[in-house]
Amino acid sequence: MVTLADVAQHAGVSASTVSYVLSGKRTISAVTRERVERSIAELGYHPNAGARALASSRSNIIALMMPLRMDMYVPVMTEIAIAIATHARSFGYDVLMLTGEEGPEAVRRVVGSGLADAMILMDVELEDARLPLLRQSGRPAVLIGLPAETTGLTCVDLDFAEAGALCAEHLAGLGHREIAVIGEAPAVYERRTGFAERTIDGLRARARSLGLRVLHRPSEGGYAAMAGTLAQIFTERPDTTGFVVQNETAVEPLIGLLRQNRRAVPEDISVVAVCPEQVAVQGSVRLTSVAVPAREMARHAVEHVIAKIEDRAGDQVVLLEPELTVRASSGPAPVSG
Amino acid sequence: MVTLADVAQHAGVSASTVSYVLSGKRTISAVTRERVERSIAELGYHPNAGARALASSRSNIIALMMPLRMDMYVPVMTEIAIAIATHARSFGYDVLMLTGEEGPEAVRRVVGSGLADAMILMDVELEDARLPLLRQSGRPAVLIGLPAETTGLTCVDLDFAEAGALCAEHLAGLGHREIAVIGEAPAVYERRTGFAERTIDGLRARARSLGLRVLHRPSEGGYAAMAGTLAQIFTERPDTTGFVVQNETAVEPLIGLLRQNRRAVPEDISVVAVCPEQVAVQGSVRLTSVAVPAREMARHAVEHVIAKIEDRAGDQVVLLEPELTVRASSGPAPVSG
DNA sequence: CTGAAAGCGCTAACAG
DNA sequence: CTGTTAGCGCTTTCAG
Predict the structure, then answer these.
(1) pLDDT tens digits, residue range A122-143?
(2) Which intervals hold domain HTH lacI-type (chains A, B) (predicted)?
(3) Inter-chain touch B97–A99, beta carbons under 8 Å
C-alpha cells in the first residue's frame, strides 16, 4: 500500500505539503504542486479512508435509510436512492445503504460510530420512531417526507396537497363535475405516511371551491380488488366522469377494467394519475399525470444535507411544486344526457 | 464523544481489555466483561469506525456496484440490493452503494482507499470493463452475472440456460409443438449481459430434443412494440400455441393483446414467463413462470464475499437451480384442427 | 510558501 | 486472564 509518506518522500516534500495539495486548504507553489501530483500519479496513491476519517472526523459518507416496507413504491424509491447516490458523488460523498430492517437503532449505530457524517431518511411516517433519536443525536439529517412535527428538522417532499389540487383543477377545467379518487391501499393510510392524506385533503379543498363532487376510495392494487372498487364507485355515483388515481399498482388495472366495461378513455371517462413518470408513460394509455419528481427530491436532499454537514444551513421544509402533464387519458367531459 | 479510553477508565481496566471484550478475540473473566459492558452501556459508547478501520485495516463495509443502466430490471435489481444490504448486516457488514455512473474508476477508488473490504458487482456484462481492474486489485469480489471469462472470479447467477430449458419442457409436456420466445429488447442482446443468450440457447437445445419448433423474437416492451411483434409472430407461425416471455415490460402487454385478439389464455395460448415473482403474480393473469431468485442470489453473494474477506474461500461459479411454478397462464395445447 | 510534530481512537503484538 | 505500548495513515496546529 502506498501512503502519503511515500508520496512525500518520492516528491521530496513533507507529508503535510502532500496533504495540503490534496485538500487545497493552503496555497502551494505551482512547482511543488506539480511535483506532488506527478508522484501521486506515478505511485498510484489513494488516500486511506479510515485514516482520513479518524484524523478529520469526517467520513465523507452519507447514510441513506430505506423504507421499512419495500413492498410499495419500489420504482420511485429506487429512483430516489440512485439519484441520491449519484448526486452525492458529485460532491465527493459516498452513500451507505441502510435497510429498514435494522430499525431506529441504525440511527444510533451509524451516527454514534461516525460511520456517516449525516443521514437521509426515506419514507418518513407522521410519528416516525427514528426521529427522537435523530434529534437527540444532533447530527445533520434530511427527511424525505413530512412528519407530524418538523421543528428542528429539514424535510423535502412533493407538495402533495397542491398535487391533489391540480388534479381537481384539471378535471374541473375540462367540465367534469363528479369525480372519484382511487387512493392507496388502506394500509398506507394506516401507516400514516401522510402523503396520501395530504393529497386527498388538497384535492377536496380545491374541489369544493370549484364545485366538484368527490368520492374517495382507498383501494388495493391489482385487477380483482380494482374491479370491486370500480363497481362500487359506479353504483354509488353513476355519473362519475373523472378519476384520480394515486396508487401505482391500480393504474393499469383501472385502465384495463374501464376498457372492459366499454367506457372509453378519455371520451367517456378521464383519468389523472399521481404517480412516477414511468408508470404514466409505459402503460397501454399515456396518462395525464402529476409526477413524483424523484430526481429533484434527491437533489434537494443531498444539497441540504451537505450544507448542514458544512454548517452552511439550518432547518427548513422544502415542498416541491408539482406539475401536471396532460397526456392521452383526459379530455372534455362527455355532454351529459 | 466517548472513546474506548473513557470506557476503560470508567471500568477500571486497560484499553486493550475493552477492545478484547468487544472483539471477543481473547478470553475475559466474567467479572471484567460485565464491568466493561456496564460501562459501555452507561456511557453510551460506540466504537469509532474510522479508528477501527485504520487500526485493523478492515472497514466492515462491502461496496455494491449497481447497474450502469438503471432503466431496466428495476424491481429485481432493487430486491437484490435490499437483500444484500440486509443480509450483510447480519454478518456485521454495511453496504456502500455505488452507481454505474462513476464507471470502472469506482473500483479503483473504493479498493484503493480501503473504503470497502470487498465488492459485489451487479449486472455484469460478458466483457465487463470493471473486471480487469478488479482482478488486478486482488480484492475480494463477487459478481452477480456471468462474464465471458470467469477464471479468478467468483460469480453467482441463475442458471438461465436451464431456465430456458424448463420452459420448453413445460410447454412440450402440455402438448405444445410450436412456440415463440419473446426476448428482451435488442439493446439487451447488444449489451451482451449474457443472460438473455443463455436462456434462448438452453431453451433451443431442450426444444430440439423434444421436437419443438422455436421462433425467437427480441422485442421492446410496451403495447405498441408488442403489438407489432405479436402480429409478426402469428403471420410467420400461425400455429404457435405457446409463448415464452423474458421481458418484464412485455408481459402485461402480451397478455392484454392476446385478449384483444380473442385468444384465450390458457385455452388457446399458453404463456410462460421468465421474470420476477412479483411481475408473474400481480398482473391480470397469474403467470406460470420461472422466477429470478433475488434473495437467494443476494444470500450467496454476501456469504461468498465475506468468506473471501476472511480468506475462507476461493473462486467459484455458483449457478442457481431455476424453478418453474405453474400458475394460470399455461395449459394443454388446444386440439389442432 | 513549507516543515515538524502531535495526535485522532483503535488494534494487536509483546510481556507478564 | 490482563496490561503496556507501538503504530495504522492522515490532518492540522504551531513554527518558521
Answers:
(1) 989 899 999 999 998 889 999 9
(2) 2-56
(3) no
Q: Which pLDDT band holds residue B190 (cuts at 50, 70, 90)?
A: confident
DSSP strand pairing (B317-320 vs B61-65): unpaired
Nearest to B101 among A54, A86, A113 (CB): A86
Q: Return the closest nucleotide (C1') to the Cα of A4.
A: D9
Average pLDDT, stretch B50-70?
92
Q: Which residues of B71-80 are buried (b: 16+ CB within 10 A; e: fewer)?
A: ebbbbbbbbb
Any atom of strand C under 7 A from CB of A328? no
A101 touches chain B (CB under 8 A): yes
Rounded mean pLDDT of B33-40?
96
28-57 of B, contacting A, C-beta below 8 A: 44, 46-54, 57
Domains of chain B: 4-56 (1.10.260.40), 61-158+294-320 (3.40.50.2300), 160-292 (3.40.50.2300)
The mean pLDDT of chain B is: 93
The pLDDT of B207-214, averaged and rounded, is: 97
CA separation, residue B122 to residues A257, A331, B128, B269, B294 (Å): 38, 44, 11, 35, 12
Give CA–CA dist A198/A177, Å, rounded.
Answer: 22
pLDDT the model gives residue A249 = 87
CB-CB contact of A209 with A165 (8 Å): no
Which chain B residues in 53-82 sit with Cβ < 7 A of strand D?
54-55, 57
Mapped to the 3 state alphabet, what secondary structure does B247-293 carry? CHHHHHHHHHHHHHCCCCCCCCCEEEEEECHHHHHHCCCCCEEEECC
Residue A177: burial class (beta carbons within 10 Å; 0-12, 13-18, 19+): middle
Nucleotide nearest to A20 (CA to C1'): D11
Q: What pLDDT shows up at residue B284?
A: 84
Gap between the Cα atoms of A6 and B223, Å rounded: 61
Residue A49, CB, strand D, below 7 Å: no
